[in-house]
Specification:
The complex is a heterodimer of chains A (188) and B (325).
Chain A: H1 2-21, H2 25-45, H3 49-74, H4 78-87, H5 90-114, H6 127-134, H7 139-159, H8 166-177, H9 182-187
Helix pairs in contact in A: 1-2, 2-3
Chain B: H1 6-44, H2 60-70, H3 81-97, H4 117-137, H5 141-172, H6 177-182, H7 194-207, H8 219-222, H9 232-257, H10 268-289, H11 295-324
Helix pairs in contact in B: 1-9, 1-10, 3-4, 3-9, 4-5, 5-7, 5-11, 7-9, 9-10
The chains are: A mainly alpha (188), B mainly alpha (325).
């Protein structure tokens, strides 16, 4: 299980790095999907198959589809790839990278000496146990999240509201645009 | 545990062999279905269908295979090459991987996962990308429209596909497929979960893009949808993938609602195959009988009828289970 954890973690890091550096938006999203699946394997190796399955179903299978959907519709060509390349120059990323590297060094150092490392046993936590925890001690958080999502759903359906279905409106417009004498002409 | 003991090694070899047999059976039944479907459609629509090659057209599959292998494997110059090649592989592999969770007989089956059904949902979620990437990478307007329709349809139907099975999960108390089959020893779940069965059947047809939910590939309106630019074996993988999907959904319907291998007299494997082929026939008959509805009506049907139905079904199941427990 430990090998699986480290391999999946490596894949996740490399894939996420490619998400940032890739110039083609759709390919970058593909790497993001791979990264999410690698995180799912990480969850699995830590003994949480339920969380792993949800990670793939919800993030890789639903949310990322919407991302790809939108990027597909934008029809980004080679022009945007060029633009991306011109934005990603060392002058811009080198400063934040050095500072993040320092933070990473501190973190690794403290883990190394502080002994915060646990072992990966791969002990399995079943879906039922997750459920009893969610609807036991964490009930309030679940309910709050549900309310937040409901509010978002209502807002989205209000914004997307159409008094008249799109297709019927198009048809009505087409009928109005058509010359009035056309039908009789056809019959005669 | 001693890794190298002969018992463990034998168990590993037996497990791998079983997995390979199941894989080959799934792929071959998918391939044979391409011919069987055309013959059956011919029968039901009062015409012949392909009956020239071999006895009663039995060698038609070989002829088709030779033809599809020797076609030019053409990638359009304007296509996004990497995604174009990746898409059919996802289409084929994601559905094939789902056979992992199906318990065929008490002793046969690839993996006995705790998360069971959830694994199928995950693979069905990944399967959307095949259509999406195929349509995008083709850089063709018909392919793009097809991909849009397909992904919107699949997303909408996956929402209540998950919910339609939750009634079963509540009754069994487990996601594990073997537990679900064992829970049906007295009464098949098709009786107490009839609405769950109906909605899962509809969602299954929609997820495999079969008629009457074949909006994404409607020939008359958008040429052939997302795989219009594909040729040779890449198209073949999309094509066989669709039939593998039919076999998969039929096998899932069998295990989830018709009691899997349970049945009197005959051995378990025969019952499983009989029930699965019954659903495969149902898929083909549906295609022969029903016209294709309009796209927006398909979406409305999913969101405004099936989703509330599954929610009510889950609620009632929960109440009944709580009261009888």
């Amino acid at each position: 299980m430990e090998i699986a954890f480290y391999l999946a973690a490596l894949v996740a890091i490399v894939a996420t790095f490619r998400v940032i550096t890739h110039t083609n938006a759709v390919h970058a999203l593909l790497y993001l999907i791979i990264s999410l699946m690698a995180v799912a394997v990480v969850f699995y190796s830590l003994g949480a198959p339920f969380a792993a399955a949800l990670e793939v179903i919800v993030y890789a299978g639903a949310i990322m589809v919407l991302f790809v959907f939108v990027v597909m519709m934008l029809n980004l060509g080679s022009q945007t790839a060029h633009q991306e390349r011109s934005w990603l120059v060392p002058r811009i990323w080198i400063g934040p990278s050095i500072m993040a590297a320092i933070l990473l060094a501190v973190l690794v150092f403290s883990f190394w000496h502080g002994g915060g490392l646990g072992t990966i046993s791969g002990e399995e936590l079943s879906a039922k146990e997750v459920g009893t925890q969610m609807f036991g001690p964490y009930l309030l958080a679940v309910e709050l999240a549900a309310m937040l999502l409901l509010a978002a759903l209502i807002a989205a359906s209000h914004i997307g509201r159409n008094d008249e279905p799109q297709l019927e409106r198009d048809m009505n417009e087409a009928v109005q645009r058509a010359p009035a004498g056309n039908d009789e002409g056809g019959q005669a | 545990m001693n890794w190298m003991s002969t018992d463990v090694l034998l168990a590993i070899v037996a497990g791998v062999l079983k997995a390979i047999v199941i894989l080959l059976a799934a792929v071959l039944s998918g391939a044979f279905l391409t011919v069987i479907e055309r013959r059956l459609l011919g029968l039901w629509q009062d015409r012949y269908g392909p009956n020239r090659v071999g006895i009663f057209g039995s060698a038609q599959l070989i002829a088709d295979m030779i033809k599809i292998f020797f076609k030019e494997d053409w990638i359009p110059p304007f296509a996004d090459r990497k995604l174009f090649v990746l898409a059919p592989a996802i289409a084929f592999a994601s559905l094939l991987l789902s056979f992992l969770i199906i318990p065929i007989t008490p002793t046969w089956g690839v993996a006995d996962l705790n998360i069971g059904i959830l694994f199928f949902f995950a693979m069905a979620g990944i399967n959307v990308y095949a259509v999406l990437f195929g349509g995008y990478a083709s850089a063709n307007k018909y392919a793009l429209i097809g991909a849009m329709r397909a992904s919107a349809q699949t997303l909408s139907y996956e929402v209540f596909m998950g919910l339609s099975l939750m009634g079963i999960v509540v009754m069994t108390g487990s996601f594990n497929m073997r537990d679900i089959v064992n829970g049906q020893e007295g009464l098949w779940y098709i009786v107490p979960q009839f609405f769950g069965f109906l909605t899962f059947l509809i969602a299954g047809v929609a997820v495999t893009h079969r008629a009457p939910f074949d909006q994404p590939e409607a020939e008359q309106e958008i040429a052939d949808g997302y795989h219009v630019e594909y040729s040779s074996m890449k198209f073949g993988m999309f094509f066989i993938g669709e039939y593998v999907g039919i076999v998969l959904v039929s096998a899932l319907l069998t295990t989830l609602f018709l009691g899997g291998w349970h049945g009197p007299l005959l051995p378990p494997i025969v019952w499983f195959l009989l029930k699965t082929s019954f659903f495969v026939m149902l898929f083909i008959l549906t295609r022969a009988a029903l016209p294709r509805p309009r796209y927006d009506r398909v979406m409305q049907f999913g969101w405004k009828f099936c989703l509330p139905l599954t929610l009510i079904n889950l609620l009632v199941t929960g109440v009944v289970v709580l009261l009888t427990a």
